[in-house]
Amino acid sequence: MLTRDGLIHLSGAAVRLDWSGALHWPEEELLVVADLHFEKGTSQGMRGRFLPPYDTRTTLGALEEVVRRLSPKRVIALGDSFHDRAADGRLMEGERNRIRALTAAVDWLWITGNHDPEPPEGLGGQSVDIVAIGPLVFRHEPGRGRQTGEIAGHLHPCARVGVRGRALRRRAFVSDGARCILPAFGAYTGGLNVLDDAYRGMFDRVRMIAWMIGDQRVYPVRGPMLVPD
Fold first, then answer.
1. Residues of the chain with pLDDT under 50
2. Rounded to two decimals, what is the model's pTM?
3. How many CB atoms lie within 10 A of CB 110?
4. DSSP 3-state assignment of 9?
5. Which domains are delineated in the chain?
6. Coil, strand or helix: which one is 206?
7. Are strands 131-133 and 157-163 parallel, antiparallel or unpaired?
């Protein structure tokens, strides 16, 4: 599934799984990110769970870095880009300006998610429910059962392996060559182990690979090597 130039074959498309957590499709000059969850920190604070309210700033920095490094002409954000419908009102003006700068620099599509069925206006970009480009279909929540050509988010996949007597847990892409679920890109998003029942029936377990995110590279780990939480 991995080519010599670091791309993987995904339902007829050659894509790169980047160490940032973004999927890059060079032929289409397309970058895809999932589950940014802007303003999750302030949302948690309103519920008495006090976290440093800097997650949006951190997520925007990571997003700006990968856009600058890979120079896409189009970006698709796979839903849950904003943690709730009121997130827009909690953004600092500087962060709003940074989002506008990103959406003005490229053709930007906000796919609607369960947290943000109506992405805020005034930040640029276009809101859509689903996008089809060539052999691939981009949506927020993965469909049930086996799907071909689907790129989705929502589940925040991560993977766990045993390394020298200890467990290593990292965000991960998960794919069997037919579909791919992206890790959450947001700073405070957490993850759901790819062996969890929520993924049952979605992948060919013989061909499934968790592409675990490390320092400036991803590491392919096949299903039998993975361990539950």
1. 3-4, 45
2. 0.93
3. 24
4. strand
5. 8-225 (3.60.21)
6. coil
7. unpaired
